[in-house]
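User: Run a structure prediction on this.
Assistant: Running it now.
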Amino acid sequence: LRAVSPGGPPVLRFGGDTTDWSWWPVPDATKPGGVHYALTPEWLAVARATAQATDARLILGINLEADSGLVAGTEARKLLRGLGRRFVAAFELGNEPEVYGSIGWYSGPDGRPVFGRPPTYDFGWFLHDYATVGAALPSEVPLAGPASGAPVWVRGAAQFLASDSRTRLVTYHFYPLRRCYTPSSSPVSPTVAHLLSAQGSAVPADIRAAVRSAHGRGLPLRLDELNSVSCKGQQGVSDTFASALWVLESLFHMARAGVDGVNIHTLDNVPYEPFAFSNAGGHWQATVKPLYYGLLAFTQATPPGARFLATAAPG
């Protein structure tokens, strides 16, 4: 992690779908229906040891889908107390709230999906939830948001920032290709050709506009969930050397567009992971994947103080 963190300590994001599936158990409170993971003192100890070993700062996802100041506030206070202010960069409320009304939070007894919000849930409703639940979080830690990957919500960056003064880090998600709900004929279906096309590494206009809105208020914008293919990647695309070429090209485009940082999204045993670890018989083994080499090349090409130079080249 330190080797691919240009110019300073790594910034690690603990988020993704598990943001809204987790809670710190609240005495005498009913566990929200969509929660199936309890944060514990043991989890805190491992997270703190990870932060210490890498000298990292953490963006910590806080459950918003439960729509409870009690749940969110308890979680944030426990994390802050257990990790210490030194390691906590920001609390990020929720994860991709644009799908709260369209993708099931959990399944009911009959197997049908139960949604965290009604189908009419929209950006304006989210702004209200963000302000209400955010007010329950410790004031000494800044907020990060809106943690959205929907272009129409990205285009609302100026409205989002005007509605809340505690947000000090603007966060969005981006995947150039999509595996879920995408026909093979789509230009964003996961193929190597699509990944290495000019469109595959381009920074969308809505993200560039959001960068301008954030910078206009003196705030950084971070793509804190980025990888090649949404829905955990695609075998034969995300795990090939093409992914190294893609991420190197993409990061240069993002730096030129003014994006202040990225978090490469990963979880265990998925095609787009940059590295993997296994333990057999008490012995750990590490495996480096193609994506990591693209990250390493970008880090070596952009040491502290690096800047873009204008060049003229033959056609």
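The longest strand covers residues 167-174.
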